[in-house]
Amino acid sequence: xxxxxxxxxxxxxxxxxxxxxxxxxxxxxxxxxxxxxxxxxxxxxxxxxxxxxxxxxxxxxxxxxxxxxxxxxxxxxxxxxxxxxxxxxxxxxxxxxxxxxxxxxxxxxxxxxxxxxxxxxxxxxxxxxxxxxxxxxxxxxxxxxxxxxxxxxxxxxxxxxxxxxxxxxxxxxxxxxxxxxxxxxxxxxxxxxxxxxxxxxxxxxxxxxxxxxxxxxxxxxxxxxxxxxxxxxxxxxxxxxx
Length: 242
Fold this sequence. Notes:
The chain is α/β, with parallel strands linked by helices and 242 residues long. It is built from 13 helices and 8 strands.
């Protein structure tokens, strides 16, 4: 699929619906897919760390999770039309899995967090089949992999923080050929467990979720500085959509 490049980092200019439809076709074809969220902070990290850039660019879908990506696309006359957030993409994939009778597996976070997220999602998505789950503190990875295999899950969500979750996916994809969709979801289990409250809808629709989080956590101001630095770098970079 056609992708855009920002400071050497690939971004998929697809909507939620387009990603889900493409993913369904890949599943039918027996192909594995990976989803990674891309925002200005992650792009700037990729600029400093070749490993982060490699992990992003080797993914199937690099979703534009951040209003800064949409602004950059407009500045460069790109084709990114809407934000595709990691937490909402997870929900869309879960709904797809429920409609297609695919088992899902949750891995990561604290025991009480992942368990509560599982229960809440099962209650809110009809016909969702959570084939299994494991917290992020399991020591024996071979036991974990066997648990995933035995579950029969075809979709797995990994919440270990970035880039650890992406490294885990890259290492274990070949060992889990039956799993067709892998998504690193960061703190999404915290959201679905109810431990973390998302910004009100009015902030999300306006692309101001970052502002709401900054008001709630002023210490995030240093992280938010990645946005102006990113936009300045995009504007001054040579080449179309770079």
